[in-house]
Here is the input.
Amino acid sequence: MDGYILSIIGVALTQIEPEFHLNAFWTGMIGASTLVGFFLGGLVFGYVTDLIGRHVMYTIDLVVIMIFSVWQAFADGPLELSILRFLLGIAVGADYPIATSLLAEFAPRKHRGGMLGVLQASWYLGALVAYLVGYLLLLLGSGAWRWMLASSALPAFILIFMRKGTPESPRWLLKKNRIREAREVLQEVYGTDADIHKWEAQGKKTRFNKLFQGGYLIRTTYIGLFWMITIIPSFAIYTFGPEIMESINLNKPELSFIGTAVISFFFFIGNIPALLLLYKIGRRPLIIVSFLVMALGLLLVGLFPKGPIWITIIGFVIYAFFTGGPSVLTWIYPNELFPTEVRATAVGVATAISRVGSFIGTFLLPYALRSIGIGPTVLIGAGLTFIGVLISIAWAPETKGKTLAEASTVE
Here is the structure.
């Protein structure tokens, strides 16, 4: 759902721009306003989720997503559409800490990395479906963009029913000293023999400032930065994929959409070997090597922007495929590196930090493409990605095989 919402706007903008006569400012604002909402939604509702529980927030945000998805179809100008996309972003941003912390706290140690990583693979699948659906809806004519944006209400509606009956996290209940309720949930999910005493100690308070103290400060800084570096180029490609394809001479609409869909496909399948390598080589080697190859892929595009189209496509494909490494870790690291009382808060803060950069990058991309061109723009992305290599060498921890309690402990 999230990948669909953030990517369908890329196709819709091909019709919105001429209909609303958008300049670079409004094109960037509509494309990036959802990311500003992500910042607020993740920052505020991650903390709220740690205070009042995962279960309470689990359905509310989906109802909000459904409402604003439909409302977008009735927008009559760029300002209104930007505001609606912003509000939609708040709800989607809230779902990041809610859903991932709940999954992390239920997942067995052996399968936790894979289960969290699959979420990110699903994001790319949603993005790929968005481009395919958007391309098909273009056949409806000039007003098709309204149907595209409203269509994201459908997965939200389906998820409301799929989430029905999901219990509260027993780890969160323990932290709130609600031991009887935690025992009931634990035995309902894992069986009557489940031993609550093997879980983390209860009674610790949720303190926002814990994320910025001692070793947790380094962890907070790292997850925010590596997430931001991962999504600045990738979100720009998803949001303005057709426009980027046109800049490399795929100037027929059907060719630009096909080119974007091909790259989206490699974004998706790159998660599959990354999930397998989590268990083979661990988190740290995976993210370092992935960032390095991603930077080389963008470097190839940046150095030969007017070369044969196949070189540019290969460069983007290399980048997209190896994005799978840091992408699957965007959900794993924040949930593993912080204790239960601030886990959702940590995911929310990481989401917020990453969206500051992604907003700036997405907002400025239309200006960059029209002023300095595709080559220098992509070289900037390559430089940012190489910074990801350096900070991962310095700070990326290894949590393979550890329990949540062990992984979240700072020595």
Q: What stands out?
A: The radius of gyration is 21 Å. The chain has a mean pLDDT of 82.
